[in-house]
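>> received
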Amino acid sequence: MWRAWQLRRAIHLRRRRPSSDLRREPKIGHRGYANNAPELSSNKGSLFDGERCYTLGKREGTSLCNSAVAGASEEAGFSVEHEIGDKCEADVHLAAKLGPGIGKLIVSKCSFIFDTGRDTFEGNCSLRDVLKLGLWLSPETLRRFWRASWLRPEDFLDILIGFGQGAAEVRNARFLWNLYRWASWQSKDFRHLPRSNDIMVSILADAHMLSQAESLLLLLDDNRALTDASRLFSQITQMYSEAGHLDKSVALFDRARSKCLIPSASCYQVLLNRLVGRRKEELVLKVYVDMLEVGLGSCTEGDVLDFVISALVKGDKFLQAIRIIRQLKSLNIEISKGSLSTVAKEFCKKKDIGDMMNFLEEWRYLPELRLCNRMLASLCTNLGTDEAWFVLQRLESLGFAPDATTFGIFICHSCREMKLKAAFLYLSECFSRHIEPKVCAYNAIIGGVFTEGLYRHAKYILEDMIERKIMPELLTYRILLAGYCKYRQFDDIEHILRTMETNGVNDLPSGNCVLSKALSFLGLDHLGVKVKRDNAAGFPKAEFFDSVGNGLYLDTDTKKFEISLVQILDNALYLDINSKIVSACQQGNVASALLLKDEAFQWGHYISPASCLELIKSLCASPVHVMDVIDLMKEMPYTFDKLDAQTLNLVVQTLSKNEMSARARLVLDRLFRRGLPVNQDTYTYLLIGFCTERNIAGFWECWNVATKFSWSPDKKDLMPLISHLCKWGVVEESLQLISSLLDCYPNLFFSAYCALLKELCRTGYTNVGCAMLEALLEKGVDVGRSLILNVAEGFLTEQKTVESIGLYDICLHKNIVSAVFTHQFAFSSLSWFDAERCKDLVQSMLKTECSDVPAFSCIVNELLHTGKVSQAISVVEASTLGKKSSDKLLNSILQSYCCLNNWRKVDAVLCIMLKIHASISISSYRLLVRRMCEQSQFSSALYLKELIQDSDKSKDLILYNILLFYLFKRRNILQVQDLLKDMKGINTKQPQSQNSIESPLHVREP
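>> returned
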């Protein structure tokens, strides 16, 4: 039987040196992640790629399956199931039992794995020893130096050139880097050629070994041993930027500029784009201005220019922004619309209309419609409608086409200026251009008519609205009722109320008194207005007369009443967009709310924090509107800063969930600046967002902040985080993360531990997962079968059969039986490795009374497929077939004897199968028919076909085809004709579709 000591011995025999492809950069910020994102994007398992062995514990330590650990496992027992999810009891006492330092224990067990990625090259070896490590990488290049004892500078240059484009591959770059250093150390007088230095630095950078590339670059540059330092500084700076290490990138950029080296255009572009993404305004301005000074302004990109101009305007450097735009114009560069719009808005804000128009006409640039309307609204407010109309005419020469909002702005502002005639002229102009005015324009005119005392004309304006199918809104009726109340036109009030009922207005109060209903609708019923008759001589109090000549007056506080009415009329001139936005959001009409927000922007109206709050909540509820949240942040930065903590937390979570974690991080900074509390879920969503976007630098930055503020993840959040870390290949850091959980959140530690172990086994790091399992056993923790089987299946996935079978042996001894698929997977791998161990494992299963019959069949089948027929028979003979027989197993045995041409045994097995009515498989039938036809036993072949047909009609066509094939092969034409007639008779009884060649499984029912 396969013993644990055999596994340990096999492991030691199979140990190899870990692959040279294995790579880990020196730690950055106390984290062992790689230097750049492309490295992280490599295939999963790349950290241990090519490694074919595993030793649990340290290099000379013991394996999991040795006697010591096996004894520990027996002592601990396997009675308790610790699994992630509902079965995993993450318990503080268990965490205390594990004790501190378990992460370090596992790292020490896997130290030989982690150390292989670090730089351990010493150089005190011969040239042959160095070449031996990479001879297989480029034999044609290195073979001619095999007998040399030292290298000349020209020789190393030839080696670099010989590797060609493949030198940038990780394993090649590591080998060349070691050879480069060995050559430098072989003699004090040795000096690499400048061209070799350039190529070596470039290779290291292309292989993303950025730390080594940077250190070598700085050393060589100080010694003036480079031919093209500018290109190399640019290359490494650019790659640092692409990797997200902006601090290092900016530092290297500053170093290059201090030496008067000019970076490349692509270096400037990549660095600026990354800085813009992080919203580093000062650094963006510094780098961009430097780019202009060195004469690379023609490489300006639109997004970067927009950011630069906005930053300059925000920093009160408006003139510098204009100078930059003019400088780019002199280079025949097309300026982005965003930059020109920013300048135009700033001109408008400064009320410098003349310069604004000159600027727009100089550039022949017309801002977008909504921005033009906003500018015109600002002009109407600050300079009046006459000046604004003049600007509109100049804009029209640039192609501006005013819309209903444009004329609404002019009409409302004219009414505010008491220019009712001008308002009617703008309305007429609107009609002449076939533009349908908005209801707000009519509201303003109706309010202006009442303000001017022309109340008799109000009804004509209402009629014109209805005639043009512009439905009045509630504000329209409020204005009409307020105006008629102001002038005591109660007959008109009654007419308006009837019109409201006709148009389906449901907000009307009940009652018979016209005045009471009107005042209640206006919200003035609290004034207690009553109509009284003036009985005094001369009617001194009478304000109006009824149809019979009675003098009537309103008994109320007249001053308050009049002020209230005037306020309602004034509201006609100012859009109440905030209440409309809130109403639309509460009704779930996000599209209408966004239109109202856009309308407010064009009118230059201020959106209140309350309205903004409701709008953000509605936008965050739908992933479709995430970009609208970002636009809202840009349009209303000051309003955004007034939002409460709950809303800002919601924004961070929404952006993180939609893969916009960088922007979410900026919102998080707002929370910190204002001293607002940050929710636990906010940190979690942000961390998972960085993981999803593969932004490892952002992840660790956020992790440090989160742990600083005592962030505690939920159990459901552990798995996504751990999964992403494993996919990145930062296994050592994942273990450190788990160790930190033991101190901070002991109740979550074991859940995270199990999750990490399973994820490591799933993503190609089973050797580390096995070390974690051994650590649990050493700590005396009860381990369930789930974790052991995860490790075993992980080894199988990585084709490490020896280790997996050793674990299966333990499982069988402990009566831990895995699923059928898992056994099949194990046997599939094992049969390629050693048939004797198949027999041992079968006997183990039988002794433990494992009744997994398909597993035996799988063993036999796999041995047959690998050509080990005699071993398959020995496995069959070693098993107790009488107790554990099945159709699949019997077919496997039958096929085994057929392959050995042991026809006596074949007949015996066939008799058994017929006796117990076992199903004969197609593969077995094919072998039997071939043998019968070769021996001219055609009647036996026909009889066998009929036997199978009786048990399974669905195989008729397949059986006929096989038999016809071998009959043709034996040239037995008469039997073929009889079979064809037989098939024709079957087809007559059971008509098939036109495609009669198809399997009977596809035959349609008659």
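>> The two ends are 58 Å apart (CA to CA).
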